[in-house]
Amino acid sequence: MPELPEVETVRRGLEPAMTGQNFIAVEQRRADLRFPFPPNFADRLKGRRIDALSRRAKYLLADLDDGGVLIMHLGMSGSFRIESLAPGLFHHDRSKDPAHDHVVFQMSGGARITYNDPRRFGFMLIEPRATLAEHKFFRDIGVEPLGNELDGALLVRLFDKKKAPLKAALLDQRLVAGLGNIYVCEALHRARLSPRRAAGTLARKNGSPAPGAVRLASAIHEVLEAALAAGGSSLRDHRQADGSLGYFQHSFQVYDREGEACQTPGCNGRIQRISQAGRSTFFCAGCQK
DNA sequence: ACACTATCCTGCAGGC
DNA sequence: TGCCTGCAGGATAGTG
Asked: Strand C: which nucleotides have any atom within 7 A of a protein Cβ?
Protein backbone atom coordinates (compact mmCIF):
# COMPACT_ATOMS: atom_id res chain seq x y z
CA MET A 1 0.00 0.00 0.00
CA PRO A 2 2.16 2.47 1.39
CA GLU A 3 3.66 5.69 0.23
CA LEU A 4 4.48 8.50 2.56
CA PRO A 5 0.90 9.51 3.49
CA GLU A 6 -0.05 5.91 4.24
CA VAL A 7 3.07 5.25 6.31
CA GLU A 8 2.55 8.47 8.23
CA THR A 9 -1.09 7.51 8.80
CA VAL A 10 0.06 4.14 10.12
CA ARG A 11 2.57 5.88 12.39
CA ARG A 12 -0.14 8.09 13.85
CA GLY A 13 -2.34 5.08 14.40
CA LEU A 14 0.38 3.07 16.12
CA GLU A 15 1.71 5.89 18.26
CA PRO A 16 -0.80 5.76 21.12
CA ALA A 17 -0.54 1.97 21.27
CA MET A 18 3.27 1.88 21.24
CA THR A 19 4.96 5.05 22.48
CA GLY A 20 5.96 4.92 26.13
CA GLN A 21 4.99 1.27 26.36
CA ASN A 22 6.97 -1.93 26.72
CA PHE A 23 6.94 -5.05 24.62
CA ILE A 24 5.38 -7.68 26.90
CA ALA A 25 5.62 -10.40 24.28
CA VAL A 26 6.79 -10.63 20.68
CA GLU A 27 5.74 -13.43 18.41
CA GLN A 28 7.75 -13.94 15.22
CA ARG A 29 5.99 -16.50 13.09
CA ARG A 30 8.52 -17.04 10.31
CA ALA A 31 12.24 -16.67 9.78
CA ASP A 32 12.12 -13.92 7.20
CA LEU A 33 10.10 -11.34 5.36
CA ARG A 34 12.05 -9.53 2.65
CA PHE A 35 15.14 -10.14 4.77
CA PRO A 36 15.76 -12.58 7.60
CA PHE A 37 14.74 -11.18 10.96
CA PRO A 38 17.71 -10.21 13.14
CA PRO A 39 18.99 -12.98 15.43
CA ASN A 40 16.91 -13.34 18.59
CA PHE A 41 14.50 -10.71 17.28
CA ALA A 42 11.73 -11.43 19.74
CA ASP A 43 14.02 -11.67 22.76
CA ARG A 44 15.82 -8.54 21.70
CA LEU A 45 12.55 -6.57 21.87
CA LYS A 46 10.90 -8.19 24.86
CA GLY A 47 10.91 -5.88 27.87
CA ARG A 48 12.12 -2.89 25.89
CA ARG A 49 10.22 0.36 26.08
CA ILE A 50 9.48 2.43 22.97
CA ASP A 51 10.56 6.00 23.63
CA ALA A 52 9.39 7.44 20.31
CA LEU A 53 7.81 6.33 17.05
CA SER A 54 8.91 8.35 14.04
CA ARG A 55 9.01 8.10 10.28
CA ARG A 56 11.75 8.73 7.72
CA ALA A 57 10.67 8.39 4.10
CA LYS A 58 8.63 5.15 4.10
CA TYR A 59 10.40 3.71 7.14
CA LEU A 60 8.84 3.53 10.59
CA LEU A 61 11.36 3.93 13.41
CA ALA A 62 10.68 2.85 16.98
CA ASP A 63 13.35 4.16 19.37
CA LEU A 64 14.06 1.55 22.04
CA ASP A 65 15.17 2.34 25.58
CA ASP A 66 18.48 0.48 25.06
CA GLY A 67 19.75 2.67 22.24
CA GLY A 68 18.44 0.48 19.46
CA VAL A 69 15.92 1.31 16.77
CA LEU A 70 13.32 -1.07 15.44
CA ILE A 71 13.11 -0.29 11.72
CA MET A 72 9.88 -1.33 10.05
CA HIS A 73 9.09 -1.10 6.33
CA LEU A 74 5.73 -2.11 4.91
CA GLY A 75 6.92 -2.94 1.40
CA MET A 76 4.02 -3.19 -1.03
CA SER A 77 1.48 -5.04 1.05
CA GLY A 78 2.34 -4.64 4.73
CA SER A 79 -0.17 -3.41 7.29
CA PHE A 80 -0.60 -3.25 11.03
CA ARG A 81 -3.73 -4.13 12.95
CA ILE A 82 -4.33 -3.02 16.51
CA GLU A 83 -6.59 -4.97 18.82
CA SER A 84 -7.10 -4.66 22.52
CA LEU A 85 -8.78 -6.59 25.27
CA ALA A 86 -9.60 -3.29 26.92
CA PRO A 87 -13.27 -2.79 26.04
CA GLY A 88 -14.25 0.20 23.99
CA LEU A 89 -10.77 1.24 22.97
CA PHE A 90 -10.30 -0.75 19.81
CA HIS A 91 -12.01 -3.35 17.71
CA HIS A 92 -11.22 -6.87 18.71
CA ASP A 93 -11.88 -8.86 15.59
CA ARG A 94 -10.19 -11.92 14.23
CA SER A 95 -7.86 -11.56 11.28
CA LYS A 96 -9.43 -12.37 7.96
CA ASP A 97 -6.00 -13.31 6.70
CA PRO A 98 -4.20 -15.19 9.47
CA ALA A 99 -1.86 -16.91 7.00
CA HIS A 100 -0.03 -13.62 6.50
CA ASP A 101 0.04 -12.42 10.10
CA HIS A 102 3.81 -12.60 10.55
CA VAL A 103 4.59 -10.66 13.73
CA VAL A 104 2.55 -9.94 16.85
CA PHE A 105 3.54 -7.37 19.48
CA GLN A 106 1.81 -7.49 22.84
CA MET A 107 2.28 -4.08 24.44
CA SER A 108 2.16 -3.18 28.11
CA GLY A 109 -0.77 -0.81 27.55
CA GLY A 110 -2.92 -3.72 26.41
CA ALA A 111 -2.69 -3.34 22.65
CA ARG A 112 -2.01 -6.35 20.51
CA ILE A 113 -0.36 -5.18 17.28
CA THR A 114 -0.22 -7.59 14.36
CA TYR A 115 1.88 -7.14 11.25
CA ASN A 116 0.31 -8.67 8.15
CA ASP A 117 2.10 -8.79 4.79
CA PRO A 118 0.97 -11.18 2.02
CA ARG A 119 3.79 -10.41 -0.38
CA ARG A 120 6.44 -10.14 2.32
CA PHE A 121 8.26 -7.25 0.68
CA GLY A 122 8.28 -5.52 4.05
CA PHE A 123 10.90 -6.08 6.74
CA MET A 124 11.88 -5.43 10.34
CA LEU A 125 15.42 -4.81 11.50
CA ILE A 126 17.06 -3.56 14.67
CA GLU A 127 20.00 -1.18 14.40
CA PRO A 128 21.84 1.14 16.80
CA ARG A 129 20.31 4.61 16.92
CA ALA A 130 23.72 6.27 17.13
CA THR A 131 24.78 5.16 13.65
CA LEU A 132 21.42 5.08 11.95
CA ALA A 133 22.21 8.04 9.69
CA GLU A 134 25.12 6.08 8.22
CA HIS A 135 23.08 2.94 7.71
CA LYS A 136 22.77 1.99 4.06
CA PHE A 137 19.02 2.55 4.11
CA PHE A 138 19.35 6.12 5.33
CA ARG A 139 22.77 7.26 4.15
CA ASP A 140 21.65 8.30 0.67
CA ILE A 141 18.03 9.12 1.34
CA GLY A 142 16.60 12.34 -0.02
CA VAL A 143 14.67 15.29 1.32
CA GLU A 144 11.38 14.86 3.17
CA PRO A 145 8.72 16.34 0.90
CA LEU A 146 6.51 17.60 3.71
CA GLY A 147 7.62 20.83 5.33
CA ASN A 148 9.33 23.84 3.86
CA GLU A 149 12.62 22.45 2.71
CA LEU A 150 11.30 21.21 -0.62
CA ASP A 151 10.63 24.12 -2.97
CA GLY A 152 11.11 24.91 -6.66
CA ALA A 153 14.72 25.94 -6.18
CA LEU A 154 15.61 22.69 -4.43
CA LEU A 155 13.87 20.60 -7.09
CA VAL A 156 15.90 22.40 -9.74
CA ARG A 157 19.10 21.66 -7.85
CA LEU A 158 18.19 18.00 -7.33
CA PHE A 159 17.22 17.53 -10.98
CA ASP A 160 20.08 19.55 -12.44
CA LYS A 161 21.29 18.07 -15.76
CA LYS A 162 19.23 14.94 -15.25
CA LYS A 163 17.98 13.39 -18.46
CA ALA A 164 15.78 10.92 -16.62
CA PRO A 165 12.07 11.59 -17.04
CA LEU A 166 10.36 13.48 -14.23
CA LYS A 167 8.48 10.33 -13.30
CA ALA A 168 11.67 8.41 -12.61
CA ALA A 169 13.39 11.32 -10.88
CA LEU A 170 10.48 11.78 -8.47
CA LEU A 171 10.40 8.07 -7.67
CA ASP A 172 14.14 8.13 -6.85
CA GLN A 173 14.26 7.98 -3.05
CA ARG A 174 17.76 9.48 -3.06
CA LEU A 175 16.33 12.76 -4.33
CA VAL A 176 12.91 13.09 -2.71
CA ALA A 177 12.03 10.51 -0.08
CA GLY A 178 8.63 8.97 0.32
CA LEU A 179 6.89 9.50 -3.01
CA GLY A 180 5.65 6.39 -4.78
CA ASN A 181 3.87 5.61 -8.00
CA ILE A 182 0.50 7.06 -7.06
CA TYR A 183 1.54 10.41 -5.64
CA VAL A 184 4.13 11.02 -8.34
CA CYS A 185 1.41 10.60 -10.98
CA GLU A 186 -0.96 12.84 -9.02
CA ALA A 187 1.62 15.55 -8.33
CA LEU A 188 2.72 15.73 -11.97
CA HIS A 189 -0.87 16.06 -13.10
CA ARG A 190 -1.54 18.75 -10.54
CA ALA A 191 1.57 20.61 -11.73
CA ARG A 192 0.57 20.12 -15.41
CA LEU A 193 3.96 18.58 -16.18
CA SER A 194 4.50 15.61 -18.46
CA PRO A 195 5.93 12.55 -16.72
CA ARG A 196 8.08 12.05 -19.83
CA ARG A 197 9.78 15.40 -19.64
CA ALA A 198 13.47 15.32 -18.73
CA ALA A 199 13.92 16.27 -15.09
CA GLY A 200 16.76 18.65 -15.91
CA THR A 201 14.45 20.95 -17.88
CA LEU A 202 12.76 22.51 -14.86
CA ALA A 203 15.32 25.33 -14.65
CA ARG A 204 15.43 28.62 -16.50
CA LYS A 205 18.60 29.33 -18.46
CA ASN A 206 20.03 31.33 -15.56
CA GLY A 207 19.43 28.37 -13.24
CA SER A 208 16.47 29.82 -11.39
CA PRO A 209 13.38 27.63 -11.08
CA ALA A 210 10.98 27.74 -14.02
CA PRO A 211 7.29 28.13 -13.17
CA GLY A 212 6.87 24.39 -13.61
CA ALA A 213 9.37 23.68 -10.85
CA VAL A 214 7.52 25.93 -8.45
CA ARG A 215 4.21 24.33 -9.42
CA LEU A 216 5.66 20.86 -8.94
CA ALA A 217 6.95 21.62 -5.44
CA SER A 218 3.55 23.05 -4.51
CA ALA A 219 1.75 20.12 -6.09
CA ILE A 220 3.80 17.63 -4.08
CA HIS A 221 2.99 19.46 -0.86
CA GLU A 222 -0.67 19.74 -1.72
CA VAL A 223 -1.26 16.18 -2.78
CA LEU A 224 0.57 14.73 0.22
CA GLU A 225 -1.22 17.03 2.67
CA ALA A 226 -4.59 16.23 1.13
CA ALA A 227 -3.87 12.50 1.28
CA LEU A 228 -2.77 12.74 4.89
CA ALA A 229 -5.94 14.62 5.78
CA ALA A 230 -7.93 11.79 4.20
CA GLY A 231 -6.06 9.13 6.16
CA GLY A 232 -4.13 7.99 3.09
CA SER A 233 -5.41 5.90 0.22
CA SER A 234 -6.99 2.49 0.69
CA LEU A 235 -6.46 0.35 -2.36
CA ARG A 236 -7.13 -3.38 -2.32
CA ASP A 237 -8.79 -3.02 1.08
CA HIS A 238 -5.81 -1.72 2.94
CA ARG A 239 -6.66 -0.26 6.29
CA GLN A 240 -5.32 2.09 8.88
CA ALA A 241 -4.02 0.55 12.06
CA ASP A 242 -7.33 1.16 13.84
CA GLY A 243 -9.21 -0.70 11.12
CA SER A 244 -10.66 2.34 9.36
CA LEU A 245 -10.14 3.01 5.67
CA GLY A 246 -8.37 6.03 4.18
CA TYR A 247 -10.36 7.60 1.39
CA PHE A 248 -7.93 9.64 -0.71
CA GLN A 249 -8.26 7.12 -3.53
CA HIS A 250 -11.57 8.82 -4.35
CA SER A 251 -9.60 12.00 -5.01
CA PHE A 252 -7.21 10.53 -7.57
CA GLN A 253 -7.22 12.62 -10.73
CA VAL A 254 -5.19 10.22 -12.87
CA TYR A 255 -4.04 7.12 -10.99
CA ASP A 256 -5.89 4.03 -12.22
CA ARG A 257 -8.19 6.24 -14.31
CA GLU A 258 -7.07 5.20 -17.79
CA GLY A 259 -9.55 6.28 -20.44
CA GLU A 260 -11.45 8.70 -18.21
CA ALA A 261 -11.87 12.36 -19.04
CA CYS A 262 -9.31 14.71 -17.57
CA GLN A 263 -10.83 16.91 -14.87
CA THR A 264 -8.49 19.84 -15.36
CA PRO A 265 -10.70 22.87 -16.15
CA GLY A 266 -10.68 23.61 -19.87
CA CYS A 267 -8.89 20.37 -20.76
CA ASN A 268 -10.60 17.93 -23.12
CA GLY A 269 -7.97 15.24 -22.75
CA ARG A 270 -8.30 11.68 -21.57
CA ILE A 271 -6.14 9.91 -19.04
CA GLN A 272 -3.73 7.51 -20.63
CA ARG A 273 -1.47 4.89 -19.23
CA ILE A 274 2.11 4.35 -20.32
CA SER A 275 4.94 2.29 -18.88
CA GLN A 276 8.03 3.98 -17.49
CA ALA A 277 10.84 2.12 -15.76
CA GLY A 278 8.58 -0.89 -15.58
CA ARG A 279 5.78 0.90 -13.75
CA SER A 280 2.48 2.29 -14.91
CA THR A 281 2.28 6.03 -15.38
CA PHE A 282 -1.12 7.70 -15.63
CA PHE A 283 -1.31 11.17 -17.12
CA CYS A 284 -3.14 13.51 -19.47
CA ALA A 285 -1.18 14.54 -22.55
CA GLY A 286 -3.67 17.37 -23.06
CA CYS A 287 -2.66 19.46 -20.09
CA GLN A 288 0.62 17.93 -18.91
CA LYS A 289 3.46 19.43 -20.92
C1' DA B 1 27.45 7.76 -13.59
C1' DC B 2 23.28 6.64 -15.19
C1' DA B 3 19.19 4.19 -16.43
C1' DC B 4 16.89 0.13 -17.58
C1' DT B 5 15.38 -4.96 -16.25
C1' DA B 6 14.60 -8.62 -13.51
C1' DT B 7 13.52 -10.06 -9.10
C1' DC B 8 11.66 -11.02 -4.47
C1' DC B 9 6.19 -12.92 -3.17
C1' DT B 10 1.18 -13.54 -3.16
C1' DG B 11 -3.42 -12.30 -4.66
C1' DC B 12 -6.57 -10.81 -7.83
C1' DA B 13 -8.83 -9.50 -12.22
C1' DG B 14 -9.59 -10.56 -16.84
C1' DG B 15 -9.50 -13.57 -20.97
C1' DC B 16 -10.44 -17.95 -22.80
C1' DT C 1 -15.42 -23.92 -12.93
C1' DG C 2 -10.36 -23.64 -13.84
C1' DC C 3 -6.12 -22.26 -15.94
C1' DC C 4 -3.21 -18.80 -17.63
C1' DT C 5 -1.27 -14.14 -17.98
C1' DG C 6 -0.38 -9.75 -16.33
C1' DC C 7 -0.37 -6.50 -12.94
C1' DA C 8 -0.04 -4.42 -8.11
C1' DG C 9 1.27 1.08 -3.43
C1' DG C 10 8.70 -0.86 -3.11
C1' DA C 11 13.47 -1.17 -3.57
C1' DT C 12 17.60 -3.63 -4.80
C1' DA C 13 21.22 -6.10 -7.46
C1' DG C 14 22.78 -6.77 -11.82
C1' DT C 15 23.53 -5.35 -16.64
C1' DG C 16 24.73 -2.41 -20.47
From this structure: 7-12
